[in-house]
Amino acid sequence: MSVTLADLKVGEQAEIIGFTDELLSLKLLEMGCLPGTVIELTHQAPFGDPIAIKVSGYTLSMRKEEAATIQVKTN
């Protein structure tokens, strides 16, 4: 079973292992979401969308739909 960033709960950390959307992955790579990078889900809006993650020393906000394209391995 594949786990995605969208499956994490606030406070959980995970390591990026890949992407399912090639076009979106280019944008995410430019923003520091590289395979092997440890990320942490820091905030989630009341209805679940958008979310905020800590990655490469800064906070990145994204839609849950985008987060579902990032495959992760939980620690």
TrEMBL record:
<dbReference type="InterPro" id="IPR008988">
    <property type="entry name" value="Transcriptional_repressor_C"/>
</dbReference>
<protein>
    <submittedName>
        <fullName>FeoA family protein</fullName>
    </submittedName>
</protein>
<dbReference type="InterPro" id="IPR052713">
    <property type="entry name" value="FeoA"/>
</dbReference>
<feature type="domain" description="Ferrous iron transporter FeoA-like">
    <location>
        <begin position="3"/>
        <end position="74"/>
    </location>
</feature>
<dbReference type="Pfam" id="PF04023">
    <property type="entry name" value="FeoA"/>
</dbReference>
<dbReference type="InterPro" id="IPR007167">
    <property type="entry name" value="Fe-transptr_FeoA-like"/>
</dbReference>
<dbReference type="InterPro" id="IPR038157">
    <property type="entry name" value="FeoA_core_dom"/>
</dbReference>
<keyword id="KW-0408">Iron</keyword>
